[in-house]
Amino acid sequence: MDLQETEAAYYQYVKKIMDFNETIALAEWDMRTGAPKKGISQRSEVVGTLADEVFSRSTSAEMKAYLDVLADPSIQNQLSAVTRRMVEKSKKTYDQNIKIPQEESKAFTILQSEAQSVWEDAKKADDFSLLEPYLEKMVALKRKFINYWGVTTHRYNALLDLYEPGVTTETIDRIFSQLRAGIVPLVQAVKDSSNQPEKDFLTTPFPKEQLQKFCLYLLREIGYDFDAGRLDQTEHPFETTLNPGDVRVTTNYLENDFISTVLGTIHEGGHALYEQHISRDLVGTPLCEGTSMGIHESQSLFFENFIGRSKAFWQHHYSDLNKYAENAFRGQTVDDFYRAINASHPSLIRIFADELTYPLHIMVRYDIEKALFDGDLAVHDLPAVWNEKMREYLGIVPPTDREGVLQDIHWPSGDFGYFPSYALGYVYAAQFRHKMLSDLPNFNDLIANGEIVQITEWLSKNIHQFGSLKKPLEILRDATGEEPNPNYLIQYMKEKYGEIYRLK
Amino acid sequence: MDLQETEAAYYQYVKKIMDFNETIALAEWDMRTGAPKKGISQRSEVVGTLADEVFSRSTSAEMKAYLDVLADPSIQNQLSAVTRRMVEKSKKTYDQNIKIPQEESKAFTILQSEAQSVWEDAKKADDFSLLEPYLEKMVALKRKFINYWGVTTHRYNALLDLYEPGVTTETIDRIFSQLRAGIVPLVQAVKDSSNQPEKDFLTTPFPKEQLQKFCLYLLREIGYDFDAGRLDQTEHPFETTLNPGDVRVTTNYLENDFISTVLGTIHEGGHALYEQHISRDLVGTPLCEGTSMGIHESQSLFFENFIGRSKAFWQHHYSDLNKYAENAFRGQTVDDFYRAINASHPSLIRIFADELTYPLHIMVRYDIEKALFDGDLAVHDLPAVWNEKMREYLGIVPPTDREGVLQDIHWPSGDFGYFPSYALGYVYAAQFRHKMLSDLPNFNDLIANGEIVQITEWLSKNIHQFGSLKKPLEILRDATGEEPNPNYLIQYMKEKYGEIYRLK
């Protein structure tokens, strides 16, 4: 085979892997949205079969043969940018998987599934010791994997790289220390402010059917294409991509907490817009997905916070809200509403945290993960360290581990290194917004006039269309001309919360 | 590997094929129930990838190696009944596929998809000549395939065997000639009767939401398990099995033709009950599906006709119908209703035909298919022969080919040999009912008292649980002690229509 033929065969080979991935995504969407319960255990086996297939094809002798030819540095200039990046991604997956002995990889998979189930019990019983032995084994295995990959110092970087390629602890340390310096005093000032927003009215019941219609309306308003997606109901909202023409979102209709539903829907909508706008040229390649967890989160947070929690947005949509809610909020002004949905105070549970305090929750987890992999923190000491960090960052201490170290599924799932992406997403989002304010000086007017689609187009042009063709920091640099800079987020927070809480 | 190890490896190998089949079924269900349209073309490629995978695994060297060992006649007594039958089925698939040159098999697949699309145009234009060249090529290829399989005389039997294993033209000729002799005079007498039922009130609007609730209620009444299934809406109702714990049905809510919705739902429910009751021991084997199209149809028709169109059923459910329909039918008695939903008259379109005339539509198609493959009928002459047969069997002639030879998708889909299963299903169903009347002498009371579940249990015990472990005629013999006997259907028709039309 000459180079062109090898390239064509490689494309075909990879397309099949992507097709299998699409069926996995469909099977999982189906299990979460309404598959009958008696079929679930067999369906899980189906997902296992497909995942095995993806794994074995990604690490096969055939894949190696393609990579031997196409990853050869001397021929890179003969390849298109797309092929080069595809090969780089395929090779990364190949190397990561092939270096780990199969029995250890299997052991980790089994541990993941056991630990998730034990975690539920441990949370119920508020007993970290149940989970401890599993986490210990997982951390030990992860450390071994990192060694197999050939990393001996800064082990945690190898985990960060799984979710945020190219981002290191050095970068995150810099970002987080700036963020902390900016946010912690602001949180304190907000807490001390005598201008606390009234927010009790947010529990006013919002009939499910009306709430559903309002969510459908809002998704259309931000540019979500229902010919390339659908909205279903699940307990935990999520977005999943089958292909760029089929990007689905879910939400949960909470009649007594409608604002969580509304903002959760917009959040998932933000993820979905990213995936719906990926260039169709990338379909069938591993580049046809968001480039990192952090960039993905930047899109969902952009829409949730900079759109969904903005005053301009509700200036336009508050009357619609009242229409759908059958005038339930006619007693509150749009300003009352805006302040209520942005009320901020330190809290224990990350997923319920407000925009301002959220990054601090991530810092707690980041410090701990770093100490677990690059320091000498023992799994046994996690609860104590957790509580200490919570006091340090947020000034509160969880009364129980259930509300502390046991709250998140990420560690029992083996997803060490994932958390920082959430905070990076905030930083990226604010940096995009800053650039956008100069490209679209009428940014707030667009939102206030219901012309969000122009904002979506900016994101599509500068971020979405590239899928994984560009790496996260490359996207950021090309779109904003800068490395990650947390000052834009700090600036945004100061202005917004300064106004809401009338800080001096 | 010793025999036991080979058997275990074969089971594992086959399980994966079944897992792939489950994903194909899911992808197709999804495409028909609500997948966004912009994702469909990529999704079709996914289905193609999975189908290729199933095909190549079913005809692989590895499969051949298993079959060489396990299909060896000298070791059959060392295998369980399940393994023996699995091997027999795997071998049949293997032989059928391996004997056909790959390029011809591919050509046929392409023809199928082209012909289906041309068929839609031909139907719209009422122009058979558009479809003719495609059908000619398909028939020629099918004849070649039959030759490859090694059949030289009674070619049509090879096609029948695809849908109704073990049933030959000899059997069908016998059954259909008896049926014809019984039904044709009855159709004439019904037509001539002066006691025609009034049925105009069946177009009374039935609000969609209420109709949906009524369908959910009826499915529960016949024993459909919603923990192992779900009901969705599609233009054409269907049943699809992902696994026995996940058997889905769909229906279409026709506000101005609610009885079609109701009976269509019960029909699909009958298919679903079959699949929901297959023994869980057969999951992961090729035996975990209905044993033939005919036996499958016997279950759907049993419920549609012997339950859903019975007087006993409506004696129990007519007041419920009126409740759901907000008293729309309080002007009609249950007897009016029963007669209306059983009104019969010769008509042009098979899928809208009534219970009594339906088998005659099948005979038209059977005669034609037989002549195409074992006689010398040319594709070009299909329209003329169709009209002639319609006059012969039903006494009416379609004014257009759209209402004649072009009405069904089966031939453009390449499904020659499928039609007879529909009529065999009627015959089997009546034969099961006859046996049931002696096993459950209170058959009609059970229906009239809303205790259908006892009837469902009889079917489950005698038919459903076996999946494909028994062949169709074996199921029939074991359950009824007889070969296919059309007299029970004729008897049923005579009694029922004699009463409705007050024939002498």
**What is the count of DSSP helices of chain A, taking H or I runs of 4+ residues?**
20
Summarize the biggest pleated sheet of chain A.
3 strands, mixed
How much is the radius of gyration of chain A in Å? 23 Å
Which structural class best describes the helix and strand composition of chain A?
A: mainly alpha
Low-confidence stretches of chain A: none
**Biggest chain-to-chain interface with counts:** A-B, 37 and 37 residues
Principal-axes shape call of chain A:
globular
Percentage of residues assigned to helices of chain A: 55-70%
Counting copies of identical and different chains, the oligomeric state is: homodimer
Tell me the series of helices and strands of chain A, N- to C-terminal.
HHHHHHHHHEEEHHHHHHHHHHH
Number of strands of chain A: 3
**Termini gap of chain A:** 71 Å
Mean pLDDT of chain A: 96
Q: In percent, how much strand structure appears in the residues of chain A?
A: under 5%
**Sequence of strands across the biggest β-sheet of chain A:** 1-3-2
EC number (chains A, B): 3.4.17.19
Organism (chains A, B): Sporolactobacillus spathodeae
Protein name (chains A, B): Metal-dependent carboxypeptidase
Keywords (chains A, B): Carboxypeptidase, Hydrolase, Metal-binding, Metalloprotease, Protease
